[in-house]
Amino acid sequence: MDAFPAQDSLLPHGDHVKTRRVVRRRKQKKEESLITALCSWIVEHQIGLAINLVLLLSLTHICFPRARPHTRKFFEMAYYNPDTQAYTRGIDDMYLVFFWIVAFTGLRMGSMEYLLQPFAQWGGIESKKARTRFAEQGWMVMYDSVFWSLGMYLMYKSDYWFNLKALWEGYPPIHMSGTMKWYYLVQFAFWLQQLFVVNIEERRKDFWQMFTHHIFTCALLFASYGWYQHKVGNVILCTMDVVDILLPLAKMFNYLGLRTLCDVTFGIFITVWFVTRHIFYPLVCRAIYVDLPVLGCYDSITGAKIEGEENTSIWSNISQPFTRPGGHVCFNDNIRLLFLGMLLALQVLMILWFVMISRLACSVIMGKVAEDPRSDDEGEDSYEEFEIDDHFDAEWDEEHAIEEEVGVEGLSARPKGGPSGRRGKRPVARTSAISIPGHGDHKELLGRIGCDKPS
């Protein structure tokens, strides 16, 4: 500033003000590899890629009749039996799964960008990151509301509604209704797509727990579908999906500043979690251990039991519809223990989560305030700050120097070490979560549990 040197005239002869300049420059990004750049490009163009792939398949199906026997597999369910008016399963089902992975990618981003984020802005959420978080939770509420309702409808209309022994009656259930098949394949596609989503979202503290959960879920869906256990899968999905509605809904209420609705929804969530995941879910596991079908091999076309045949293999039986259509499928202890082990491993993971949820509930009841477990407090841009003595003759390249703060305001009285000018951090939404002993301060809390504080 021109006025600043004039201050020397007010000081004793020979004394000068020693000034320091605060120079802020944007942190340089590390050079990206080709693969990283490609992944970033895919993430930034999810809607366009999804629409173009669907249009390409649709136009190919319409314009090239010879390609229709192949392209129809992406749009229609395969293996329809007109005699039974039901469906069986096979490798061609994976075409429909692929189609819905692409469709969910476009639907998710389209809903977030053009429906949920504008709604969040209308609701008064100012932070861009908070709006993104709101949109992510909103998409989960939309999806799980539809598919939990559909799953409950299928279960209510079945013979295993509150009758777990019926899960094993008539094993193997060769045929399934069109609604059940579509429901199961689309659920499988959704969880495969979630493996992609959990890696493109900003990483939370419980990234590895969520990633492990998604791996187990996808493995169980694939194996249960191939091994004719879609009835059990339907029950387990219904016990899981309901809490995936309530927790995101509580977070959405809190982002919107509706604290009372958030607290009530969170209380319902804790109750429903305990009942479905720690009472109903273990009952299904018990049924797998106790109410087993008769061990042995069965004809995958008629379902008739084949006497005198035994097969203790795991993979060949689980993949039978895909690798040996029309072959025999066997029920053995090795597969039973595999399924039971995977389901119990999920139960252990859910118990750990429930302990964290309970601690959060206790902290809320005690009136404690939890801090943000995620990196939402970071500004949208990252800067480095440097303090430079005025007498130090340093030259800064213009492309590195973002802004310079120097002048009379630097002489204002403030505690040493206090904030000096703009520090490059902008206010953003804060969140709350659970305190985990042994993880240092509150910043090591579980990121996906609890109501987020509105901006």
Automatic annotation (TrEMBL):
It is found in: Membrane. It is a multi-pass membrane protein. GO terms for cellular component: membrane. Keywords: Membrane, Transmembrane, Transmembrane helix. Residues 404-455 are annotated as: Disordered. Residues 130-366 form the TLC domain. Coiled coil: none annotated. This is Longevity assurance proteins LAG1/LAC1. The lineage of its organism: Eukaryota, Fungi, Dikarya, Ascomycota, Pezizomycotina.
